[in-house]
Every structure is written in structure tokens, then in C-alpha cells.
Automatic annotation (TrEMBL), chains A, B, C, D:
Taxonomy, superkingdom: Archaea
Isochorismatase-like domain segment(s): 23-200
Originating organism: Natrarchaeobius chitinivorans
Matching Pfam families: Isochorismatase
GO molecular function: hydrolase activity
Signal peptide start-end: none
Keywords, alphabetical: Hydrolase
Record-given protein name: Cysteine hydrolase
Length: 241, 241, 241, 241
């Protein structure tokens, strides 16, 4: 073996806008949500934000760029369901129309997410989820464990649902949470504000401006294992350039 | 809806106010929350309800009585922490003062819960939780599995935190949820209403009046395993009177 | 035994070789394991069985056919790891060489599994796992919940590892387990026998002959939701032919 | 905040007999298991060890003493079931007679465990479990997270069941595992040896002699949070002497 890693701890002792050992979680920035003119079931008109989802995507693009430059791992959370809905379960009881079928156009990354080639880039990953919380019944924790993450920066849509429940999933697993407010939105101002309030209740330091998070990432020393992956193509500690 | 399937199913095909095979979860009706005059950290002034927490307790007492008469299992959820806070984790990052230490007065059942001898009664159980969601890192699911539960009726405090996150924990495990609105409260009207809205988003049929839930329980045939426990003192199927 | 209870129950009251509401789990029947002449890291020479893995595959093909005819859902468990090993974690500490990289030939279904088009068939699913137990940090439970499964028939390789730990994962979640002995194998007779003994310890009724399981499936009335999927292409209860 | 903690990582880079940041898990050293003359259902004659369970207890007493001196947190795992067996579930299908009822003599710590006052000591905890694996549906992970543990030293009975499945639970959550061989036993030599082989398969470095583990603990710098608890009575980082 031979990892050269920073001192970490599950419950970081910092109010830094990016926490101490962060990963970036981008949740559900999928076409279906952006397609507000259509009947797209995940459509999120994002009236909570001037400029709507396109503006949220711009902020998120900037944050993704900062995370890449700072050697922070990125997880692209993707809600999708099997075409026959065999994993849909209690969502049949929910208020949303049927949405996010695998292989449909609606589940692909929104075109407003103007980022190079996510997922095939080093230390970036797609994680499929079946419910709102990116932690539940997914393999997310394996990735966070590999990179010794203690803080998750959560962005995406919607503020009150997937971002909020992913923040809660992180909180109850003893991760610190950061939510850059400009990088999330909801169909109404009320739901956006309520979502933020609920997240703030969990961890008051979680709410941050995207500028502060980016500023903090610019001074972050970087995740040593991300650098190892960028150099060798693998987290395998025995791999050498 | 309109499932055409065999009588066994995790996701019940009913809008009945009590679901099809319900258990009652009473969450955090603990002294600490009722002690609004003191500095008690879980104190919940419950201004969202006329009559405050005492009124919530009265409604809940009625519901507990109905559940007992209807042969419905009852789980008394109890948040408590080890005295040295070794299980407190990310709650150090949260907005609440330190609360609910094991063996403190604050964790005992509130005196306004005027019910006979909970827990020592047949088919009633106490489940300790360390976070908000009664499902997470607890043995609750074993009890629900034993009684073949597909619906959880969630009551207690606070609407936006423990009741809401327990409802979410149930939802993402494919249980139907019912929340009798009079049986939950929050420190402010805003938090109470927001908590209900979030629960309603998960499952629109979840919000019910306590009168409707009690009315439905009066016509429920009862849980056969609860009856077996009342007759024999054990769920063991080989036990006979 | 002799439960006197309603027809819904997690813990079936039957010693039937196929349980009461079964799903078939086929675990890790992947090319890498069959390639015993190579250095393939999952190679499993299966000296525990006359005819080796090809014989195991023949028995499993028969069982898959019987499950399809009986309207039983089938889950194809597939161990695979991200190419950069970001989900590999404590497997770096294990005794196996690095194995089962996504998109490598080794992770595809072994050619000896001479079955029509798995996965694209109705009520059949692939579930990716990162460790041995098909339940852990996967979405398997959603599928089992949808089909109201109470018994899992576990087959595949290796007896002592993935089959055994998947049986254990099922056991601790209150499912009944069946393992048709001819449908699993291990590199040595000792490991095969020890794996079976450990499974038997969990649930003595779990060990069955494949002939008995197939015989029981021939008399099974079938899973109503599987039939619905075969008729309509979806589990959605509102879908009609 | 202000924890002074050692650099940790989930997947430690060491073959040290005690790992890098260890906790000691003592599993099921309960009266019921020691009572081999009786019909006690957990009775474990431990013919796998010269001197039987009393000898296992002596070794474990020494290890507990070493862990205390080394400022290592200790978790006392305790299998127990509700008196009406409401959490017993699939154990009704298992090969063991009904065992370990709460408040029965059989669940108390075996008298051969000649240690001062466990649990009331600083940084020692009791964790109740309902199945074999001490991780599953318990709050163990909260404690391990608090102390930034990356290695679990697992002892107790039986080698093939609770010790083995707890080791597996740790492995699939990316903890390193150590099992001091003299500190575990099984009813037969075969089951003991098979249990050890299965553990070794998971992590070849896991099997250690108790002497080597104790020797390593004597040189361990100690867990900083354990020291904080010994000094202040709480893990709360704001607490000062």
C-alpha cells in the first residue's frame, strides 16, 4: 500500500465554506428537470432563482471547474428507474408523475451543464439512485471512503427534495454538509426557502454562497488520492507513474 | 390506483386513513420536549397547536387507545444519547443544544401521555434512536417485519424533524405513511406547516385527521400476530394458550 | 412450525423447497470465473463438482428455465468494480487478485449460461454489487419489495463467498433462503462443503436439491406481478393490456 | 471544536497486528454461552480450545486490559432478544434453540470475564444486536465514527458465527479487521477452523496471535478521543478539565 493522505476525521472541526476533506455531489441535473416547456415530469421551473435553472447550471459549472482544479472528487448523482418500474415502489404513492426512466432522454445530463465529459474524467463518478437520497441503497459510501471524505458539498435540484434528503443522508452518517445556495433551486420560492431552512436546521454551517465555497476550494491543498488517480489512472496505491 | 395482485404486498393499494396493515409509531413524546418553561433543550413550545403539546398528547392518547383496541402494534420511539455523547457525531454540528442524555429525566415519556404502562404491554415496544429517523441504525425493521406491517402511522414531535424524517425513512423503504395532523407539532406555525407539506409531497395520502385514522382503526380486523401475542405472550408461532 | 396468521408474512411458514413467494438470485456467473485456464482472477476451478462450472451452469440453466415458466422474478447479480477501483476499498486487503473491472470481458455472463437474452426479458434484472453480498449497498431490496418476495433462491459462485454472504444478507433481513446445492461451486471441496454448512447453520431448510426446487416451482401458482409485467410490460398497476 | 486526532483513513496501510486506529469489539461473551453443563441454548463447549471457554476468557481479559491501558475504545456486543421474540424474525428458521432473552441470566456478561465494571468505564460501551453481525441495525457505527476507528479487533464467540459475521460486516464497510485467534472459539474444531479460514479469506492479515496484538497495543500512541473522555468524561470537544 502507501496512501499519502491528509489527516481526516468523520466530524470535521471547521467552519470553512468547503469543509476539510470535501467531495462534490451534483444531484439530478438531468434533462428532464430542465425541460420546463414540456410535460417532462421532473420539470422544475425554478422560479426561486432569477434566470431559472440555466442560471443554477452556470453557477454549478463554475463550482465543478473549481472542484476539478482543486483535486476534489465529484459524484454525479442520477435518479433513474428501470423501464418497467420494478424499483419504483412507494414512489407510486408520491405526488410526482412517473419520471426518469433509464435510457430516456430525460435522465441524461442537462445540456446547460457545460462541462467537459463528466464521468470519464479522473476521480469523477456517476451513481444511480432510485429514491431522493443519494446515500440510500447506492454505492456512494464506497467512493467517499476511498477518498477519506468528511464533508459533502451538495448541489442540484430540487432544494427541498433530492438536495435536502441527500444532505440529511449525509448528516445522519456523520458527514459535514455544505450547500452553495445558488447551486440549487425548486419550483417555488416557498419550497426553495423551506428546503434551505431544513438543511440549515441540520447543520447551520451548511448554507454557503457559491463564491465562498469556490474561494475556499482555491486554497484547498487537494485530495491526495485524487492526485494519485490523475497521475496513475487508479486509486490502487501500488500503481506508480 | 388499482393493483391487481396477490394479497401480500409491501406497497398497499388503499387510501384508507389507516392504511392496510398498520403499526403506530409514537416518536419522541419525551419529558424534555414538554418542559417549555425550562431550558430543556428539546423543548417544543408547539405554538402551532391550540393547547400546545398537552393537546397533542390528548389526541395521541386517544389514538394509542384506538390502536390497542384494534390490535395494532405500537412502537415508542425514544431519542437518547449516551451520557458521554459517544454516539452524538454530526449532532455536534447541528443547531440544537445538547439533549436527551440516557437516564436523564428528559428522556422519559411525558406525563401528559396518560396511557397505561407502555412497553410492558403486549405488542408494544421501545426503540432507541440516535438521530431523527426512527429507521436508521435501529432494530425497528425487525419488529415491522414480524408483524407484516406495510403502513406506519407516525405521530410525535417535531413535525418538521423526527416525524418528517421518520416518514421519509418509511417512504424510502416502501412503506405507506399516515400522519394524523393533530398528533404532531413544532415550535412555530411555519415549521409545522412546512413539515406537513414535505410529508405530503412524499405521499399525498399521508396527511389525515386523527378522527379519520381512529375511525378507520375501529373497523380494522386487527393484526393476527398482535392477537397471538395477547393470547400467548409471544410471537412464537408454536406457542399455544 | 405452524404460524396462525394472515397470508402476508415476511417469514414464511413452509418447508417447501422453493419457499412461498420466491425470487431467483443468480450470483456472479461471470466469464472471469469460468476462465480457469487463464489467470482470470475470479477463476473458480470448481473441483467441488463433477463436470466443473459447466455442469453448475447446466443445472442453473434448467433452474432459470423453470423460474421463467413459473412466473418467478430473476435477479442477475453482477460483481464489478469501477476501472479506477474507486469502490474497491477493503478488497485491497483481501486475498483475491484485482478482478471484475467494469466493461472487461470477465464481468459478462458466462457463455455456459445458455439462456435467452437475460435482463431484457420481463421480470429479470441485473443488479451490480461491489462486495460479496448482493443486498449490501445495492437496490436489490426495491425489486424484492415490488414483487412481495419472502424467499430467495440463491445460486452461483462461489459457495463459500458470494452465495454464502448473499444468503446471510437475506437471513439477517428476514427472508427465507433456499440454495439448490448443484447450482453452486467453490475452488475446493473443503470450501464448498464449509460454505454449505455455514448456509445450513443459518437456515437448515435452505439446502435443497435442484430437482426438488424445480419440482416445487412446477406447482407454484406464480407471482401475480410477474404475470402483470409479462402482460403489460410494466409493474405499474394502472397499466392494462 | 478542537479534536486532536491522529491521521486516520478508512483503509489503513499497515500490517500491524493491531491495525492503525483500532477499537476492540468483544462479542457475545455472555453467561448463556458458558453454561455448557446446562441446556443453555447458546452453550458453546468450545472443544476447539484447550481449557475451553474459560481459557478464551482469560486471553480476552488480558486483551481488554491491554486495550484499556492503550486508550482504545471497547464495545461489548450483546445479543439479546425481546422477551416476546418480536425481533426474532428469521431466527425462527435457524438451527439454534430460542436464546438470549433480555433480562434473562443468559445475556449477562460471563463471570469468567474477570474485568472491572465494563460499560461504566470511560470509552466502553454496550451495543445490543438482534442478529449475528454487530454492525447490522445497531448504532455501532456512530461510536466507531466518533473515535475515527479504521480497524476493529474482533473477539468473542462463536468463531464461525458472530465473530465471523461481525468481521464480514466490518470488511464490507471498509474497516480493517484483526481477530486474535485465542480469543474466539466454537463448539467443534471443524467450525472453529472453518470460521478462521473464512475470516482469513476476507483479509489475510486479520488472523493474529493475542500476544502479537497485545504487543502492538503496548506501543500504540493511544486514541486521542479516548484520552479526552478519560480526562473530561465526555467526547464533547468543548469540554475541558
Amino acid at each position: 500500500m502507501g496512501f499519502q493522505r491528509a489527516p481526516v476525521c468523520m466530524i470535521p472541526d471547521t467552519t470553512d465554506p468547503a469543509g476539510s476533506d470535501p467531495a462534490l455531489l451534483v444531484v439530478d441535473m438531468q434533462c428532464g428537470a430542465f425541460n420546463a416547456d414540456s410535460d417532462a415530469p421532473m420539470a422544475c421551473t425554478a422560479t426561486s432563482v432569477d434566470g431559472g435553472l440555466d442560471r443554477v447550471a452556470e453557477y454549478t459549472n463554475d463550482l465543478v471547474e473549481a472542484a476539478r482544479n482543486a483535486d476534489v472528487p465529484i459524484i454525479w448523482g442520477k435518479e433513474q428507474h428501470r423501464p418497467d418500474l420494478a424499483d419504483y415502489g412507494a414512489e407510486f404513492l408520491c405526488s410526482e408523475p412517473i419520471h426518469a426512466l433509464e435510457n430516456s432522454e430525460g435522465v441524461s445530463l442537462a445540456s446547460a451543464m457545460d462541462v467537459d465529459d463528466p464521468v470519464s474524467r479522473p476521480a469523477e463518478y456517476e451513481v444511480t439512485k432510485r429514491r431522493y437520497d443519494l446515500f440510500f441503497r447506492t454505492d456512494l459510501e464506497y467512493i467517499l471512503e476511498t477518498y477519506d471524505i468528511d464533508t459533502v458539498i451538495v448541489t442540484g435540484i430540487m432544494t427541498n427534495i433530492c438536495v435536502h434528503y441527500t444532505a440529511h443522508g449525509a448528516h445522519q452518517r456523520d458527514y459535514a454538509v455544505r450547500v452553495p445556495e445558488e447551486c440549487t433551486a425548486a419550483p417555488t420560492e416557498y419550497l426553495h426557502e423551506a428546503g434551505l431552512k431544513f438543511i440549515e436546521y441540520l447543520q447551520p454551517d451548511s448554507l454557503q454562497s457559491v463564491a465562498d465555497v469556490i474561494g475556499s476550494l482555491e486554497t484547498y491543498e487537494g485530495n491526495a488520492i485524487v492526485r494519485h488517480v490523475k497521475e496513475t489512472g487508479t486509486v490502487d496505491p501500488s500503481a506508480r507513474r
